[in-house]
Write a structure and sequence with these properties.
Elements: H1 2-19, H2 35-56, H3 65-89, H4 109-127, H5 129-137, H6 146-165, H7 173-192, H8 205-228, H9 236-270
Length: 271
């Protein structure tokens, strides 16, 4: 029995602490294995696919305009301030173009800022789950696409893995550009939450998807550059997964863009 418990403890906790970065283990959601990520993600999926729709089946949709407005403004500020501080801390992004070991326990002020910005970015991926929760409670099921759910379920896990096993400056590149994209995206959602009277000012939705596509292209180029950098000691396996992740999401978002806007643009040109 003791050997079984030892085996379970090793693979559930000790393995991740032995090979992961012990300097971040004091933070909530980063100690031990990724079981909290898996449990929260499964809970999210269960609510979105089963519990939520069943709960709302015989109920009218909730009016959540005030809640959503607060939520979106909060994320605009979180991502916007994070982006500006990240730009300052990375010297206009220059540090993210270099593959250098990053010390999470550093006493330097800019390093501490960057470390906690990265941690905030990681936690924000759980806050993003609320986007889908609001769709369910408002019975906007057409908004809950496979791409939307897949994207939200993948991000916390990837953030955990890179935080735990890859403390290098180049890993700040994607969070930095993603914070900018999310600032723009949640600004759009915040305006939309004001109500139908804002519709004339929301003509730029498709450009958000274009910005996301540019983000994935930039991430792919950055990851490829790091793979080719022979002086980079960062895990090539993780960088490879990062490149594949960016390529996969570029294709998924491009297909979404074509379905959402491609046909409409062809019709307009044909008129």
């Amino acid at each position: 029995m003791d050997s079984v418990l030892t085996f379970i403890r090793y693979w559930c906790h000790d393995f991740w602490e032995e090979y992961g970065d012990k300097r971040i283990s004091h933070l909530p959601m980063l100690n031990g294995g990724p079981w909290h990520v898996i449990m929260l993600t499964l809970l999210y999926l269960y609510f979105v696919k089963v519990w939520g729709p069943n709960m709302m089946k015989n109920r009218p949709p909730y009016e959540l305009r005030g809640v959503m407005l607060f939520h979106n403004i909060f994320l605009v500020l979180l991502n916007g301030i994070g982006f500006l501080m990240g730009i300052w801390g990375t010297k206009l992004g220059y540090r993210t173009l270099k593959c250098e070991p990053f010390d999470p326990s550093s006493d330097q002020f800019d390093d501490k800022i960057l470390f906690y910005l990265g941690y905030t970015y990681y936690i924000s991926k759980y806050i993003d789950f609320l986007d889908t929760v609001y769709f369910v409670l408002r019975k906007k099921y057409t908004h809950i696409s496979g791409l939307h759910v897949f994207h939200h379920t993948m991000m916390p896990f990837w953030c955990y893995i890179f935080f735990k096993f890859s403390s290098y400056t180049n890993n700040g590149f994607i969070p930095l550009i993603n914070a900018f994209v999310h600032t723009v995206m949640y600004s759009y959602y915040a305006l939309a939450a004001f109500g139908p009277q804002m519709k004339p000012f929301l003509w730029w939705k498709k450009y958000i998807t274009q910005l996301q596509l540019i983000q994935f292209v930039a991430a792919t180029i950055h990851s490829t550059y790091m793979l080719l950098d022979t002086t980079c000691s960062c895990s090539k396996l993780l960088i490879s997964f990062q490149a594949l992740h960016s390529i996969l999401f570029f294709n998924l978002f491009y297909n979404f863009y074509q379905q959402a806007y491609g046909k409409r643009e062809k019709i307009i040109k044909a008129q």
